[in-house]
Design a protein that fits this description.
By secondary structure, this protein is mainly alpha-helical. It has two helices and no strands. The radius of gyration is 18 Å and the shape is rod-shaped.
């Protein structure tokens, strides 16, 4: 494995971890929203935050896909 490929694999692992972390945060926030709504609280800010987190997660997934495509390209060059 050459150095660029090694570096991209590291980036891919980091992207996977970031996606896992964001997914867990989203699940936690959804649970928090459910608790707020069940207790009659205002979940507006939490729902807004959830939308931002979901958009961020999509960007993370897009970035991960870009890294994976680059790794495929590097593998084809070998």
């Amino acid at each position: 494995m050459n150095e660029p490929e090694k570096l991209e694999r590291q980036y891919l692992a980091e992207a996977d971890q970031h996606i896992a972390d964001a997914t867990a945060r989203i699940a936690g926030l959804r649970a928090h929203i459910a608790d707020l709504e069940r207790e009659g609280g205002d979940a507006t800010a939490a729902r807004d935050a959830l939308q931002v987190l979901q958009a961020t997660l999509q960007l993370m997934a897009d970035h991960r896909a870009m890294i994976a495509r680059l790794l495929e390209t590097l593998a084809l060059r070998r």
